[in-house]
Structure formats: C-alpha cells, structure tokens
C-alpha cells in the first residue's frame, strides 16, 4: 500500500432520518492503487452513484473514512475546507455522456480546468493540446464538441479529467453509449493513462463488453462492497491474420 | 481565464442577435419616447427663442398667449413702449387653424399656427431658409418648412389667398404645429373677422336700430358698421428690454401700472415646459416606466430560459471546480451583452426612424448615455433570477443515477 490512490474504510451514507431513513451505503471498503483501473459493478439502486458522489466530494457521507491521493478528505466529517478546489485539483470525472461545454472548442474544454486552477491561458492550452495529441484527437483541437463523434468526445472528456493530473479519476459508465470497438478503445486509454500518470481510476459500469478487462472488480450490493478478481483480458487489438 | 459568456454569445450569436433585435426595437421605442419629450421641450424653447422677446405681455389673469387665450387692445403697445427700460415692443396674434393649399395640392389642409406680426419687430421669424421676409401689408406669408409649402405656393387662410414668399424652420407651436407668419392686420382679420352672412346680418340689425341709424346724423351708421367689422385686439405684446435692464423689473412695472400680465422668458418657459406639456411629459414617463418593466421582464425571461437550457453544463462546471462567482459572472455578462446588443440596435433604429416622425424628435447624447446605464442596470437586475437558478444547481446532478 503506497498511501496514494484511493482508500475507503467503513464508508456509510444514510439519506433521511427516522422511519424514512435509507442506508444507501452501509459498509464500503475499497482500495485502488495508483496506476490501477478498478471496476465497480452493481445493480440499479445498489449505491454506485451514491459512492461516486461521496468520492467526488459532492455529497457528504454519514460516517467512515476516505483517503484520496494520500490525503484524508473525510474522517467522520470533511477534512478539507475547499471541496471545490479538491474536485478541481485532485479528482477527474468522466461521465456516461461527455458533457463537454458546447460553446468552447475542444482545446478550451480541456484547458478550462487548469485555467480555473489559476494557470495562464497559454500554459493551460499547451497542456490540453499535449493530452489531446496523446489521446489521438489533437487534429480536432479547434473543433466544436458538436463536430466530434461520440468516441472522440469521450476521449476529450478523458483528457479533461486528466489535465490537472489528479491522483484519482471517477468514471461513471464511460463506455455506455459506445460500440464494442470504441468501448475497448476507451478502456485502453484509461489503462494507459492510469499507468502513465499513476492515477487510480474507478470505472462504474454495467457494460458487459468491458467487464472482462478489469483485473479487479468491486461488486456493490445493498450498500456493501465485495471484492473479486477480474479476468484481466488483454486490451490490445488482436493481430490481423 | 477565458470569457465563458463571450464564448457562449459567439457560439449562439444568431440567437443572441435575434433576441437583441427584439429587445433593441423595444429600446428604440423607449429612446424615441424620450426624444419626443425632448423635442416638445426644445420646440417650446425654440418658440420662445425665435420670438426674440424678453417679455410677453398678455391679458390680466391669464397665462397667454400659448397656454391660455389672451386678448388685449392693440394700442396697449404704445403705453408699454413709453415705460422706462423698454427698447422695442410689438403686437402679435396667434391662431391655430387649418390652412388650405390652393395650388399643386389643391384642397390639402395643413394644421398650422397662424402668427400675425409687425415686420421688423419682435415676433418676426428670425431667419429664412429661402425667399424673403414679408414686405407687403397684405396677403404674403412666410411658412415653416414642415407645412410642406414651397415658395410661390398659394394658401387659403379664411377667405383670402396668400402667397408664400419665405421659408423658415424650427418655428412650431407648443403643440408641434408649424407656423405660418402673416402681417398683423391680416392675422387680426383672420382671427376676429366674422363670416359674410354674420356681417350682413349684423349690418341689417344695426340699420334697423333707430338709435344707431338716425336720419339727422349722416355717416353715423357707416361709422358704427365699420367699427363692428374691424378689430383692434391682439393676443400679446412682445417686449425687448434695453441692454442692462432687468426684464423682471420691467415686467413688474407693466403688472403694476398697466393692469396687464407680463412674463419673463424663464416664467414663460416654466409655463410652456412645466405646465403646458406637463401632462404629455407624465404620459411619456408612464410609457418609459412600462417599457422599462417590459424590457426587464423580457431580459429576465430570456436569460432565465437560456440558463435553464444549460443546467447540465452548469452542473459539470460546478463539479469540476468552477467558482459560483464565475458562473454568476457568466450569466451577468450574458445579460449585459444582450443589453448592449439591444441598446446598439435600439439606438441605430431610433436614429433612423426619428426624422420620419411628424413631430420633432430630439435624441440627445445624454439621454442615450442614461438609457445605456438604465438598460445595463435593468439587465443586471433581470439576471438575478437566472443566477439564483444557476447557483441552486447541484454539482451532483452531473453524476448520473
């Protein structure tokens, strides 16, 4: 255990109070090492989104402990004063739909985060372009989001999640709208970026196409997590015979 | 940091432009309404300025000649001329009536204020665009260009034809009617002369009266009938005071010794601006308030709708760490941008359509600046609703489930 990555201990989340209280998370324990991509799987209503929101510091857990990138952010109460800055600098988000800002071009969609963090526009754009090149969408740098295919948009959203080099990326159904080929391509990118930037990535998914690619999977059921070894199927394209 | 509002406006420029066009036309109407009021005030000031008078002497206990009817004997001017401090004084008459064109536009009536004046005296039109001043005692007229008459036109005032010999401009009544200047004698006749049937009837009545038609008094009947047909009343006496003499001091003498009312220029301006057009001014002010409220409602509705259309993007922006004030700033800047687009369109529209209005519309730069400030203020206030909606957006909404 390096102390970086993601570590969750006894995390609980209760909605409401009294007779109407609902325990969405009862006892969640997870460890994701830096450079690792872990799957989080569970049926609807099992608590996946609640866990993601807790990890994303947008809702407050009821109890437990969360350590992101070696920093204890929650220990029976928030330990970070500025959660917005935490989200901006330490957590990357990839959504089911790319949710790119429609009035910004691709470069500025990615560069917006470092700009928000106070970096000069030039530096932010240079970093964004570097990532876009790495994700094979550099040639569309000046395009508007609406001019890109679904796969290209998702790669841009991955670049946006990575641009501030956060220790953690939370991906919520990132391959849902994509066909098999593009879904596997996205997983390849996530694995490559996790290894390259030593980022811990949690991928929430129902997607049967990508579940076999995880080396480790967490199942979540009735607010509790259960770890299981994944198949860890190779993501490299099969050679053409 | 890039301007999110600017990028959004550039991205959706068509929608912003069309919305700005609608708002701009509304702002254009607002600026024009203000211009109509300014035009009325300016017309009133031009009316006073062009008369060349320092004092207006009118019938006692009236506020004539523009705001109320005033009638005084035309020999009052002689006693006024005798007062110390008076440089010049002249009789004038004012009568608003329909003047008929007799020439190329035969039968076309123009509503005008017919002014009777003594050539070379106060009350004469100050400058001419074309033609000459009146030189003959009768049947010549100088007209404001807004009447539409041209030099040489024949116009009918009551029973007589007049020839247009001169053109002037910015000579309109407080009601905006263009002026037609004729000699005092002609104007007195036009104003007070009875029609032919009435004169015949009056003559018959006088002749039938034994007291007024005595056989032993030859010429009495003709003298009485002549006095009945003639008129020696005017509406006002315009007075110019000598240099260095206080107009108010001369006015006080006139009020005290001549049993007439006298108004200085500031007093007459007060009557024209504060009293005569006060109701119109209040009417316009009401329109301005309504237009401001409508503009605010439109901007608020548009910005609110546009913000609701971006709820998901705002949630994402908040999730990735955008400050609330950055999001509020974006919405505020969009509202101000919309206001600016609307103002520019409105100002251009008002500038183009103002000359087409039948009455003088004066678009003052100061009003435009005030209008811009008001538009910006209204847009800023109107964006509050949208900002509140945006700040309520939960960043968790960006995460599904």
Which geometry of chain A do the CA atoms define? globular
If classified by CATH, what would the architecture of one domain in chain A be? 3-Layer(aba) Sandwich
H/E series of chain B, N to C? HHEEHEEEEEEEHHHEEHEHHHHH
Quaternary state, please?
Answer: heterodimer
User: Could you give a short account of the major beta sheet of chain A?
Assistant: 6 strands, mixed
Fraction in helix of chain A: 25-40%
Biggest interface goes to: A-B, 33 and 26 residues
Using the CA coordinates, give the radius of gyration of chain A.
Answer: 18 Å
- Count the beta strands of chain B: 12
Q: Any low-confidence stretches of chain A, pLDDT <50, length ≥5?
A: none
- Beta content of chain B comes to 15-25%
**Distinct helical segment count of chain A:** 6
Terminal CA distance of chain A: 42 Å
Write a structural description:
The complex is a heterodimer of chains A (241) and B (401). By secondary structure, chain A is α/β, with parallel strands linked by helices. Chain A has six helices and ten strands. In chain A, the strands form two sheets. In chain A, strands 6-7-8-3-9-10 form a six-stranded mixed β-sheet. In chain A, strand 7, helix 6 and strand 8 (200-204) form a beta-alpha-beta unit. In chain A, helix 3 packs across helix 4 and helix 5 runs parallel beside helix 6 (180-197). Chain A is globular. Chain B has three domains: 4-44 and 279-398, no CATH class; 60-190 and 235-259, no CATH class; 194-230. Helix content of chain B is 51%, strand content 17%. In chain B, a hairpin with a 7-residue loop joins strand 3 and strand 4. Chain A binds chain B through residues 44, 48-50, 52-53, 56, 58-59, 84-85, 87-89, 93, 95-96, 99, 101-104, 108, 112-113, 115-117, 121, 144, 160, 172-173, and chain B through 1-2, 4, 7-8, 10-12, 312-313, 316-323, 326, 394-396, 398-401.
């Amino acid at each position: 255990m390096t102390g970086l990555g993601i570590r969750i201990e006894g995390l609980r989340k209760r909605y409401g109070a009294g007779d109407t209280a609902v325990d969405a998370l009862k006892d969640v324990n997870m460890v994701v090492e830096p450079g690792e991509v872990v799957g989080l799987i569970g049926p609807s209503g099992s608590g996946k989104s609640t866990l993601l929101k807790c990890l994303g510091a947008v809702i407050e857990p009821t109890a437990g402990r969360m350590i992101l990138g070696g920093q204890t952010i929650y220990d029976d109460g928030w330990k970070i004063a500025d959660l917005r800055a935490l989200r901006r600098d330490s957590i990357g988000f990839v959504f089911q739909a790319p949710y790119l800002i429609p009035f910004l071009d691709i470069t500025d969609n990615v560069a917006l985060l470092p700009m928000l963090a106070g970096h000069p526009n030039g530096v932010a754009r240079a970093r964004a372009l570097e990532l876009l090149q790495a994700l094979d969408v550099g040639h569309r740098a000046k395009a508007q989001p609406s001019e890109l295919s679904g796969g290209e948009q998702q790669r841009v959203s991955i670049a946006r999640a990575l641009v501030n080099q956060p220790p953690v990326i939370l991906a919520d159904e990132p391959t849902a709208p994509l066909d098999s080929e593009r879904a596997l391509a996205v997983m390849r990118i996530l694995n490559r970026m996790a290894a390259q930037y030593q980022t811990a990535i949690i991928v929430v998914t129902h997607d049967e196409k990508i579940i076999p690619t995880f080396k480790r999977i967490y199942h979540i059921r009735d607010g509790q997590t259960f770890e299981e070894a994944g198949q860890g199927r190779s993501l490299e394209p099969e050679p053409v015979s | 940091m890039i301007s999110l509002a600017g990028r959004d406006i550039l991205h959706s420029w068509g929608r912003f432009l069309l919305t700005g066009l609608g708002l701009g036309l509304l702002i254009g109407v607002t600026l024009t309404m203000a211009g109509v009021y300014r035009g009325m005030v300016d017309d009133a000031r031009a009316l006073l300025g062009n008369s060349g008078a320092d004092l207006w002497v009118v019938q006692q206990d009236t506020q004539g000649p523009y705001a109320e009817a005033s009638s005084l004997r035309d020999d009052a001017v002689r006693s006024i001329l005798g007062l110390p401090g008076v440089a010049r004084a002249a009789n004038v008459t004012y009568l608003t009536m329909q003047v008929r064109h007799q020439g190329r536009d035969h039968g076309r009536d123009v509503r005008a204020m017919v002014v009777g004046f003594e050539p070379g005296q106060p009350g004469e039109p100050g400058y001419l665009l074309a033609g000459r001043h009146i030189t003959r005692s009768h049947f010549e007229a100088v007209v404001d260009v807004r009447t539409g008459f041209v030099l040489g036109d024949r116009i009918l005032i009551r029973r007589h034809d007049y020839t247009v010999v001169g053109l002037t401009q910015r000579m309109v009544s407080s009601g905006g009617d263009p002026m037609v200047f004729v000699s005092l004698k002609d104007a007195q006749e036009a104003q007070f002369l009875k029609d032919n049937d009435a004169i015949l009837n009056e003559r018959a009545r006088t002749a039938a009266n034994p007291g007024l038609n005595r056989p032993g008094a030859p010429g009495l009947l003709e003298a009485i009938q002549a006095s009945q047909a003639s008129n020696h009343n005017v509406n006002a006496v315009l007075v110019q005071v000598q240099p260095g003499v206080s107009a108010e001091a001369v006015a006080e003498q006139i009020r005290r010794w001549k049993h007439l009312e006298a108004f200085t220029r500031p007093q007459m301006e007060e009557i024209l601006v504060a009293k005569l057009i006060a109701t119109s001014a209040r009417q316009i002010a009401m329109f301005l308030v309504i237009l401001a409220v409508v503009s605010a409602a439109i901007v608020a509705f548009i910005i609110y709708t546009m913000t609701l259309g971006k709820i998901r993007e705002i949630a994402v922006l908040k999730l990735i760490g955008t400050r609330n004030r950055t999001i509020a700033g974006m919405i505020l800047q969009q509202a101000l941008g919309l206001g600016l687009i609307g103002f520019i369109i409105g100002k251009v529209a008002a500038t183009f359509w103002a000359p087409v209005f039948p009455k003088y519309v004066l678009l003052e730069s100061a009003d435009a600046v005030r209008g811009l400030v008001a538009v910006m203020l209204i847009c800023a206030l109107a964006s509050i609703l949208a900002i509140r909606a945006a700040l309520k957006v939960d960043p968790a909404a960006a995460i599904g489930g």
